[in-house]
TrEMBL record:
It comes from the Bacteria. This is Glutamate decarboxylase. PANTHER family: GLUTAMATE DECARBOXYLASE. The lineage of its organism: Bacteria, Bacillati, Bacillota, Bacilli, Bacillales. GO terms for biological process: L-glutamate catabolic process.
Length: 475
C-alpha cells in the first residue's frame, strides 16, 4: 500500500508502512525509531519529508553541513533564549524536536495533537526522573512478576471487571480466588461464604468497617437503642486507612496505646475502651511499623469472656493486609483466622505478599450472613443482574487474573518457599544490624518478613536514626 494513499490514516495505525525512498531521516536510531509521516493530516507526494525535518536542534553549528539555518536573535543567544522560556514550556528532552511540534503545555490540554512517538517519548523521558521500582526499599508492594504474568497482564488490562456478564470467565476466576482464600483462612463453609476483590487492602478495610457498622446499627435498632454514637477500637499504631474510615463514616476511633515495652494491642487495653457502642475491634496481623502480629486469639478470648459477663457481642475484623499471605505458610499453627468464631471478616493485600502488581486486595466474610444484604447493590444495565459491593466500579481485570495465576503457579508449597526466603533475608539483616553498636533491634522478621531497629538511648547527640546530622555551633 502506498504511504500517501488517501485511505491511509496514520493516527489510527501505530506503525504505518515504509516511507518512500526520498523521505530520509536525519535522526539517529536511538532518538527516533518510529516510521510515521510527520503530521496527522493526509500527505500528498508533494509533502515529502526533507532532510532534518524530523529532528533539528534549535542551533548547532557542527550540524550545519546539511544546509544553512536561518538564525533568529534567540538562536544566536541560546542562553538568553533559554532564560526567556517559561518553565511550563520547557521540554524534558530538548533534543527530541520535530518541525511543527512544540513542547506540550503542562497545565492545559494542547490545541493540537502530535505523533504517537512524540507523545510516548515525552512521557518516557519524564518517567526516567522517577525512581526505579526494583530499587524502592520503602515499599511493601510487588514490583516484579514473571514474564508469563506480564503477558497475561497485557492481555487483560482492557477487560472491565465490573462487566461480569460480558467477561464471565474472569468472573468465575474471581470467585475461585475468593473460595481459595476462604479455605486458606479456615472459613467453616468456604464454598458458601462471600467476598470481593478490591483495588487494595485499603478499600477492603473500608468495606469491612462498613459491614461492621451496618450490623451494629441493625442490632441496635432491633433493641430500640440509639445508633448515633458508634466507635471502633484499634491500636495507636494502626494503618492510616482505619483513621480514614472513622473520619469518613462518622465513627469514633478509640485507641489502645502501645509502648516501648508493649508494641501491640493487648486484651486489657481493648477491654478498657469497648462499650455497647463499639462496632468492632481491629487487630492487625502485621503492624505496619514493626511487622508484629497482634494477638488475635487472646483478644477474641477476652471478648468472649466479656460477652459471657455483660452480653456485649463485639465482633473482630482482622486487618491481615500483610500477614494474610504469610501466616498460613510460615506459621500454619497460629490461630488468628476464621477458626475463631468471633472473627467475622478478614482483608488482605494481594499486591503485597500476595505477589501481584498493584492494585489488588481481598476481603472475605466468615459466613454469608456476616455481610448485610442491604449493602449489596444489583446492577442491571450491563446486560444482566450483577451484584456489587465496592467503593469503586469500573477497573481492570488484570490483577485478579494475576492473583489466580500466582495461586495455581506457586501453590501452597511455592508460597511457602517465597515467604521463607523473604524471612531468611529479614533474619540475616536483623542479626547483622544487631552487631552494630548504636542500634537495638526491635523486631527481627519472625512474624512478617519486616525488621525494625532503633538508636540506643543516649548513644549520640550528633545524628539521629534517619541519618540527619545535628550541627552544633560554638561561639
Amino acid at each position: 500500500m502506498n504511504s500517501h494513499d488517501n485511505s491511509y490514516h496514520p493516527y489510527l495505525i501505530p506503525f504505518g508502512p515504509s516511507l518512500s525512498i526520498n523521505q530520509t531521516y536525519s535522526t539517529s536510531p536511538n532518538l527516533y525509531m518510529g516510521n510515521q509521516p510527520p503530521s496527522f493530516i493526509k500527505l500528498t507526494p508533494k509533502k515529502t519529508l526533507r532532510t532534518r525535518s524530523l529532528w533539528k536542534p534549535i542551533y548547532d553549528p557542527y550540524y550545519n553541513f546539511l544546509g544553512p539555518v536561518k538564525r533568529s536573535r534567540s538562536t544566536r543567544c541560546p542562553r538568553r533564549h533559554a532564560q526567556m522560556m517559561s518553565h511550563h514550556k520547557a521540554s524534558v528532552n530538548p533534543t527530541y524536536f520535530r518541525n511543527g511540534e512544540e513542547p506540550a503545555p503542562r497545565f492545559r490540554m494542547p490545541d493540537q495533537g502530535m505523533l504517537p512517538e512524540s507523545a510516548y517519548q515525552m512521557i518516557h523521558d519524564e518517567m526516567a526522573l522517577d525512581g526505579k521500582p526494583k530499587h524502592n526499599l520503602a515499599t511493601f508492594v510487588t514490583t516484579w512478576m514473571e514474564s508469563s504474568a506480564d503477558r497475561l497482564y497485557a492481555e487483560a488490562f482492557n477487560k472491565n471487571l465490573i462487566d461480569k456478564c460480558e467477561y464471565q470467565q474472569t468472573t468465575s476466576i474471581e470467585k475461585r480466588c475468593i473460595r481459595m482464600l476462604a479455605d486458606l483462612w479456615h472459613a467453616p463453609y468456604p464454598h458458601k461464604t462471600v467476598g470481593v476483590s478490591t483495588t487494595g487492602s485499603s478499600e477492603a478495610c473500608m468495606l469491612g468497617g462498613l459491614a461492621l457498622k451496618r450490623r451494629w446499627q441493625k442490632a441496635r435498632k432491633k433493641q430500640g437503642k440509639p445508633i448515633d454514637r458508634p466507635n471502633i477500637v484499634f491500636s495507636s499504631a494502626v494503618q492510616i486507612v482505619w483513621e480514614k474510615f472513622a473520619n469518613y463514616w462518622d465513627v469514633e476511633p478509640r485507641y489502645v496505646n502501645i509502648a516501648p515495652n508493649r508494641l501491640w494491642m493487648d486484651p486489657e487495653g481493648v477491654l478498657a475502651v469497648v462499650d455497647e457502642n463499639t462496632i468492632g475491634v481491629i487487630p492487625m496481623l502485621g503492624v505496619t511499623y514493626t511487622g508484629i502480629y497482634e494477638p488475635v486469639a487472646v483478644i477474641a478470648k477476652a471478648l468472649d469472656e466479656l460477652q459471657s459477663r455483660t452480653g456485649l457481642d463485639i465482633p473482630i475484623h482482622v486487618d491481615a493486609a500483610s500477614g494474610g499471605f504469610i501466616a498460613p505458610f510460615l506459621q500454619p499453627d497460629l490461630v488468628w483466622d476464621f477458626q475463631l468464631s468471633r472473627v467475622k471478616s478478614i482483608n488482605v493485600s494481594g499486591h503485597k505478599y500476595g505477589l501481584v502488581y498493584p492494585g489488588i486486595g481481598w476481603i472475605i466474610w466468615r459466613e454469608a450472613e456476616d455481610l448485610p444484604e442491604d449493602l449489596i447493590f444489583h446492577v442491571s444495565y450491563l446486560g444482566g443482574n450483577i451484584p456489587t459491593f465496592a467503593l469503586s466500579f469500573s477497573r481492570p481485570s488484570a490483577q485478579v487474573l494475576l492473583q489466580y495465576y500466582n495461586f495455581i503457579r506457586l501453590g501452597r508449597s511455592g508460597y511457602y518457599e517465597v515467604q521463607r526466603v523473604s524471612q531468611s533475608v529479614a533474619h540475616f539483616l536483623s542479626n547483622e544490624i544487631q552487631t552494630i553498636e548504636p542500634f537495638d533491634v526491635l523486631t527481627n522478621g519472625s512474624d512478617i518478613p519486616v525488621l525494625t531497629w532503633r538508636l540506643k538511648e543516649g548513644f549520640t547527640s550528633n545524628w539521629d536514626l534517619m541519618g540527619n546530622l545535628k550541627i552544633v555551633f560554638y561561639s
